[in-house]
Amino acid sequence: MPELKTLGLFMITALAEIVGCYLPYLWLREGKTVWLLLPAALSLMLFAWLLTLHPAAAGRVYAAYGGVYIFSAILWLWAVEGIRPTPWDLVGSSVALVGMGIIMFAPRG
């Protein structure tokens, strides 16, 4: 079960990062209120803290997290922005998830 815990923590971390980046995007590109920067900053602080909860070496965690971030961003594209992912989006994000699994769960001596 540590694999599911790791994947779940990565997914929550990705959500925090995406929200922290999407809110300033709404302010800058969509003309929304500047007050969105406050929850954005809090979300990015949460993102940074969540990355520290993994017991693996920081570099390995950051590398593997990138794969989950790619997958999560494609889900965000669909769920929040209403843009259906292409088959290539799905294949690419699946490859990224496989890469995350190899990095995080490969046997180590």
Automatic annotation (TrEMBL):
Statement: the UniProt record of this protein carries the keyword Metal-binding: no
Superkingdom of origin: Bacteria
Subcellular location as annotated: Cell membrane
Swiss-Prot/TrEMBL keywords: Cell membrane, Membrane, Transmembrane, Transmembrane helix
GO cellular component: plasma membrane
Coiled-coil ranges (or none): none
Membrane topology per record: Multi-pass membrane protein
Stretches that traverse the bilayer: 7-28, 34-54, 61-80, 86-106
InterPro entries the record matches: EmrE-like, UPF0060
Family affiliation: Belongs to the UPF0060 family.
Protein name: Small multidrug resistance family-3 protein
Organism phylogeny: Bacteria, Pseudomonadati, Pseudomonadota, Gammaproteobacteria, Oceanospirillales
